[in-house]
Amino acid sequence: MTNMTNTAQTTQSLVNQDNCQINQISLSEGIDTIEIIHSRCKAIVSLYAGHVLSWQPTSQREVFWLSEATKYAQGSAIRGGIPLCWPWFGPKVGEVNHGFTRTSIWQLADVSSNDDGVSLILTFAGESLAKTWPYRFKLTQTLFFGDVFKQTLKIDNLGEQAFEHSGALHSYFHVSQPEQACVPNLTNIPYYDKLTDSERCTRLIDCRGPKDRVYKSNEALALLDYGFNRKLVISTKGTQDWVLWNPGQEVASSMSDIHPRGEQHFVCLEAGFTKPLTLAAGQSYEVSQKIAIQAI
Ligand SMILES: O=P(O)(O)OC[C@H]1O[C@@H](O)[C@H](O)[C@@H](O)[C@@H]1O
C-alpha cells in the first residue's frame, strides 16, 4: 500500500466501537477506500472497482497479494487483491480486458459489524457501458471479513432482453513462493492451457509461473503453502471453473504494475464462469466464494 499513503487523504469515521473501527478514506482522483480494523481482522476495500485489497485475520499473515506498483487511478485496473472480472472474462476486441467492472466506481450501500466481523454491501449499476455490451444491470457485492472471508456477487439483468455474461472473482493469493505452493485438488483435472492454446491434463506439482490454465472444476479446493505453513480452503457457488495464473518472471518484469519480483509472492486462483452464460431479462445470477485459513 506504499503508493496509497503518499496521496492526499480525508478520513470519515463510519463505525467507532471498542472492537471495531471502520473509516472511509478519500484518496486523490476520486478513489475511496474502506478501512476495517476489527478485533478479528484488518481489511481494506476500494470503492473504485468494488475491489478487496487486503484481508488479514488477527495473528495471521495477509491473505491477498497487492502490487506495490499498482496505480490507484480512474481507468486503470488495480493489480492484486480481488479484481472482479465481469461482464466478460478475458480479452474482447476494443474493450477493457476482463470487463468494465474493475474500472468502475461502486457505491457503499451498507456497513455492519458484530463480534464475529464486518459486513459490507457494495453496489454498481449501469446501462450501455460498453460498445459491445449495451445492457442494463445491477451488481450487488456482499463481503464479510472475520476469521473467514465471504464474498457474493449478485448480478441482476434489469433490461428487457437476455444478455450473455462471464466473469471471475480473480483472487491474488499471497504466498511465500509459488514453488512452495500447490493445489492438490487440481492434479489430474483437465484444463485449457492458454499458453499453448491446447487442452491438457498434467500433474500440478507447484504453482510456479508461467502458468495460465482454466481448470474444468468448481470443486472446493485448498491452496497449500509450505513456506507459510498454511492452507487456504476455498469453496465456491455458482462458478464453473478455476483459473490458475502466475505470469512468471519474464512476463512479470515487462508489466509496469507488478513491482520487481512481485510474481514471486502470489498465485491467482480465480473462481470463474469463463464460458458465457445467458441471463434472461429480469433474472439474477450469483457467484460466491468462502475462504478459511488452516495450519498445515
Ligand atoms: O492483466 P490482466 O488484464 O489483469 O489479466 C491478468 C491475467 O488474468 C488471468 O485471469 C488470465 O487468465 C490471464 O490470461 C491474464 O493475463
From TrEMBL:
Q: Which Pfam families does this chain map to?
A: Aldose_epim (PF01263)
Q: Which UniProt keywords apply?
A: Isomerase
- Tell me its family: Belongs to the glucose-6-phosphate 1-epimerase family.
Identification of the protein by name: Putative glucose-6-phosphate 1-epimerase
At the top level of its lineage, which domain of life is listed? Bacteria
Naturally occurring in which organism (per UniProt)? Thalassotalea eurytherma
Q: Which PANTHER family match?
A: APOSPORY-ASSOCIATED PROTEIN C-RELATED, GLUCOSE-6-PHOSPHATE 1-EPIMERASE
**EC id:** 5.1.3.15
Looking up InterPro entries in the UniProt record yields:
Aldose_1/G6P_1-epimerase (IPR008183), G6P_1-epimerase (IPR025532), Gal_mutarotase_sf_dom (IPR011013), GH-type_carb-bd (IPR014718)
Q: Which reaction does it catalyse?
A: alpha-D-glucose 6-phosphate = beta-D-glucose 6-phosphate
